Each structure stands twice: as C-alpha cells, then as structure tokens.
Amino acid sequence: MLGLILVTATPAQAAQPLSTAATTATTATAEVQASASTLGPWPVLWRGSPDASFPVTVRSLQHLLNAHGARIAVDGIFGPATDSAVRTYQRARGLVVDGVVGAATWSSLIVTVRRGSTGSAVRAVQDQLTDRRWVILTVDGVFGGRTDAAVREFQRLLSRQMPFTVDGVVGPRTWKALILGLIVAD
Q1: pLDDT at residue 13 above 60?
Q2: d(CA 156, CA 58)
C-alpha cells in the first residue's frame, strides 16, 4: 500500500533561502511520516503559491466558496476572482483577511455532505474522486448511489492504513484526505 501526503509551504517558508526551506520541508516530511495515523496539515494556498498549481485542489476551494454564496467560475486557477472571494469569505467569517487559505479557512469552508446532498460541495467531492481516478463520476452536484459507493470505497482504503470511519459521509476528515490528495493503492 502506498500513502502520499502533500507537504506545503507557507508564504513565509517559500521566501526562505533554499537551504532553510529544504530543512523546513525535510522536518515537516519527517513529522508527517512519524505520525502515519494523522492526515497531515491542510494545504496552504494563496494566489501564486506553488500548491495553487494543483487545479483539482483549487477547484475544490472554488466549489466550497460557491457553496458559501460566492459566484466564481470553477476553473482551477487561483486568480484575482478566487483571491477576492477568499478575502470576502474570510472577512465575513471573522478570519484573518489575507487571501491565504490555510487550516482555519479550510476548516471553516468544509460542508459535510452525504447521500441525498446536492450543490457545489458535492461537485467538489465528485471532482476530487474523479480527478484522483478513484472512479469516473458525473460532476452534477447530486450525491447519489455512485457517489456514495465511491466515497465509501475511498474511506475503506484509508481505513486500511489508519483508523478511519467508513460511513459514506464526507465530513472534515474525509474532506481533508480528499483535498490533500492522499493516494491509497491496493
């Protein structure tokens, strides 16, 4: 079985000299590997960040912003419209308004979805599962039987590596595993 956790840099770490940034990344990687039962930190995204080059992660961010009332295109590009929507969302929720999507913003954005749910958050789940090649789903925003089965299979595979509930509910831990791009292979 293979598990991969995406380790990200904050804007401050990205600006560090290469040797310092490499030491920070090595330390972060060692901490993640030492704690296999945890999922690791949320990815940190901001306009122009290295992790903003993962379109499926940015699309999930855009879908989740739309689930909270934003009306932005879901294009996988962390451009001016996404930056503005993030800042507007952060301001409305009393978060630090910096355009950086870190743990606090991700945690606030999460919408728990399950069979019978509809909307932008479901589209994000379907997009993640399809993009990660778990299953080919129609990204229609309807959490039906195929989406439920795909979520349960994803959770089942995760449960082989760490304690993980297999219930078909995409709550905070399942969201985090999807967004981190946790890869689990039989």
Answers
A1: no
A2: 25
Q: The pTM is what?
A: 0.78
Pick from 19-33, 57-71, 116-130, 160-174: least confident? 19-33
User: Please, what is the average pLDDT of the chain?
Assistant: 81
Cα–Cα nearest to 129, from 159, 152, 101: 152
Which residues, 6+ apart, have CB-to-CB distance to 32 below 8 Å?
Answer: 5, 7, 38, 40
Output the CA–CA distances (angstroms, integers) from residue 22 to 6, 10, 44, 54, in the order listed.
Answer: 15, 13, 17, 21
Euclidean distance between CA atoms 131 and 137, whole angstroms: 9
Give dist(CA 4, CA 154) in Å, integer.
14
